[in-house]
Pentatricopeptide repeat-containing protein
Amino acid sequence: MLSAFCYPPWPRFLLSAINNSRAIAQAHALMILTGEVAGDNSPGNLIAAYGRSGNLHAARQLFHSLPQPTISSWNAIITAHSRNDSPFEILRLYRRMVSVGGAKPDSSTFTVALKACAQLSDLESGEQIRSHAANLGFQNDVFVNSSLLNLYAKCGKMVDALQLFDKMPKRDLVSWTTMITGFSSAGKPLAAIDFYIRMQSEGVQGDGIAMVGLLQACAVIGHARMGLSIHGHIIRLDMRMDVVVETSLVHMYAKSGHLSLANRIFSRMRHKNVVSWSALISAHAQNGFANEALFMLVKMQDSGIQPDSASLVSGLLACSQIGFLKLGKSFHGFLIRRRLNVDDVKLGTAVIDMYSKCGCLLNARTLFNVLSLRDSIAWNAMISCYGIHGNGVEALSLFLKMKEANLKPDDATFASLMSALSHSGLVDEGRQSFNCMLNEFRIEPGEKHYASMVDLLARAGHAEEALDLIRTMTDEPGVAIWVALLSGCLNHKKFIIGEYAAEKVLKLNPDDLGVYALVSNLYASARNWDRVSEIRRVMKKMGMKKTPGHSLVELDGKLHAFLVEDISHPEHVKIVAVLKRLEYEMRKLGYIPKIELVLT
DNA sequence: ATAGGGTTAG
């Protein structure tokens, strides 16, 4: 009876159709009874079936019971681990197969092993596998080669990827898409788009995954027009849109400044996961809509999706923008309860940044000290924290410790450091750090570095040196730099350079009233009355359309917003009384408020 | 037949 039912060889299609563990176990039992497990391909098929059904344990048990696993068994167990996302185990199995297994790996073995290397960014193991595959005659295999392309792309080696791609005799959609995605994440969006065009001209039709790569490219450069045309392309070709494609669209529109389109796409999505929500939340947080971002975080939870690290990072960013310490703290508590903070630098840095921007330097430092993995961005956040709190000396000492820890400072490190030094007026240290950036680390200074340096020099009365520095810039200096020079000149009564800076500022037409006030004050000090009245006219015109600034104060977890001459707060009488008292106390201590130019 | 390419965050 039994042997009639499972007459060998056990049909593969039957096993591959089964994906329920019990049925596979039954088939397994039958095969043991008929002695078929010892056969050629059956164990492999069975292991593969266990793997597909997610029963890795049973797959491993069966595999380990085999005295001499065949290639199909090896591949099946390796693939089962690939489903389970355990790259280390895959490489371990691969090495065992090669060294003692006696079975020769084939194209699919190499493919899965290379994928594991890509996940681990393990270039060295990948190269070993590459030469092994070449020795066995797989150097022209599309699967192996595409996996290698992906390995190079994940390791940031697009030059090597390109070199291999160029000599590949056979390429398919996956090879092309790997290159497109690789260029996008390497910050080379134009190369990505160029590759897509080449792919099309060679008659290869794109799919959703290729579109995701292209949308990423547009997001990187914030190119709305191109993003829009890719969106149109997707619709025209009637491509299936899944969550990932739609999320990429949301992200692309958000990054290219079209929040309302991002919102519209999102609201029409049928399936939303935590990634889609996070894309939307970060879109709002990064565009300064902190309250909306926080509101969406709540809505996501209401819809039954719990925040993950990425959504919390955006939530924390929103908190730091509006100084919402209480909520930031509760996020911190939430992620500790959920044990989300282990080994996640991004999350840890976001918490540090939140405490830093909410004025809790000590909390930030405590957290920084216990962070298990500190990369250069974590250090940057901490250095910038000291800068924000006006402690340039500590920022500098942290910078030195960072170098001792063998971490390479980048342009952001120096931006934070220079800004900290300039706010503390540490001129010599500023000059040294600027030179260190240029000579020791060969970092091209950007607008921010120059602005801090000019601010530092001009503030200390070295307007001439600041101007010399500006003249070494290759790019055209922006408003911030001239304003820094101007304000230093105003304080030190350096009217000649000051007027020169003022002219530069006016030429750049900033739409900041404060800047015009500064320019006007300089001309007034220099007794250039024609210019003063001219600027007053400009300011009056601007004043009409300027949106009023406001400040936010958090009390007992509630945010209170205040505008100029705002009396809408229910307790405004008491508030004003306290302010008056504070001003009186300050004057008693010798503080003389500097009244800036008043509009008439 | 099996295997390779995709979304969010400091």
Summary: The beta strands of chain A are 550-555, 558-563. The longest helix of chain A spans residues 529-545. The CA atoms of residues 86 and 116 of chain A lie 8 Å apart.
